[in-house]
Design a protein that fits this description.
Elements lengths: L2 H14 L5 H10 L17 H12 L8 H21 L2
């Protein structure tokens, strides 16, 4: 399984166990999709593999590191809090 597919399934599994993060998980998955996902197989809105390898390298020091579920949930919590704070400051 490729890194993008692994991350997508890992994210889905982690988010399914935390219903409060379902909407934020979908938002994050959509935001991280490759912008040309529709032009090449498997025709799914998955993240770009090069981007994921770079993020793994910068976060964990290994471009093929497995992202822990706890880190994914922290990321989703941070995204939700950031979005709420942006809404308050933009009023």
């Amino acid at each position: 399984m490729g890194l993008a597919n692994h991350l997508a399934s890992h994210l889905a599994g982690a988010v399914l166990r935390a219903p409060a993060r379902w909407v934020e998980g979908l938002r994050a998955a959509w935001a991280l999709r490759s912008l040309t996902w529709f032009s090449k197989p498997p025709y799914l809105p998955l993240p770009d593999r090069t981007y994921l390898r770079w993020r793994s390298l910068t976060a964990y020091g290994d471009s093929s590191a497995q992202v822990p579920s706890a880190d994914l949930m922290l990321f989703l919590s941070w995204r939700a809090a950031y979005r709420r704070s942006r809404k308050r400051t933009n009023r």
